[in-house]
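Technical annex, item 7. During the second reporting period the consortium partners agreed on a shared format for inverse folding records so that results from different sites could be compared directly. Each record opens with the tokenized structure and is followed by the designed sequence. A conforming record, contributed by the partner at site C, is shown below for reference.
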């Protein structure tokens, strides 16, 4: 078994060593620097991606906190509107009661039949007015509540679409 690949001669060994040296020289001169440059670029791209992900996470946390603040503010405003509406309703009822009693006293002097008729009309008008005010207040509150949630949902959805982790 005198295979020149298994038992190379001195000349074959010399030329194999020269060929290997030339290959190492060429790779060292042009191959490795390009490979190291590509690895460095990839490392920088990964670092930038991680930094962008951290920044997006911070922005999302800020947006969540901002949305919570807006929600709290909207709840406070809703409570304020309800309180004002309740006070306005009580005031309207009180004014209507005063007007009805004054009207009743004046009508009592003229006739008992007119008193009952006017009292019924005033109560009916008062109930209709309170019902209309209640409906208008409820509509405004629902519009405001739905508008805030839709904007918040739309903002969160848009931020989630823009953020690719």
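Designed sequence (site C submission):
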């Amino acid at each position: 078994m005198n295979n020149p690949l298994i038992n190379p001669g001195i000349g074959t060994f010399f030329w194999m060593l020269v060929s290997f040296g030339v290959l190492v020289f060429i790779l060292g001169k042009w191959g490795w620097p390009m490979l190291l440059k590509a690895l460095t670029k990839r490392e920088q791209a990964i670092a930038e991606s991680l930094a962008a992900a951290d920044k997006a996470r911070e922005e999302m946390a800020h947006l969540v906190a901002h949305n919570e603040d807006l929600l709290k503010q909207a709840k406070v405003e809703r409570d304020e509107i309800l309180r004002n509406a309740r006070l306005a309703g009580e005031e309207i009822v009180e004014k209507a009661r005063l007007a009805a009693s004054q009207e009743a006293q004046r009508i009592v002097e003229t006739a008992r039949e007119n008193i009952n008729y006017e009292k019924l009309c005033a109560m009916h008008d008062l109930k209709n007015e309170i019902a209309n005010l209640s409906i208008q207040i409820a509509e405004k509150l629902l519009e405001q509540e739905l508008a805030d949630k839709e904007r918040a949902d739309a903002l969160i959805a848009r931020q989630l679409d823009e953020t690719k982790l």
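The radius of gyration is 43 Å. Residues 22 and 113 are 125 Å apart (CA to CA). All partners now use this format for quarterly exchanges.
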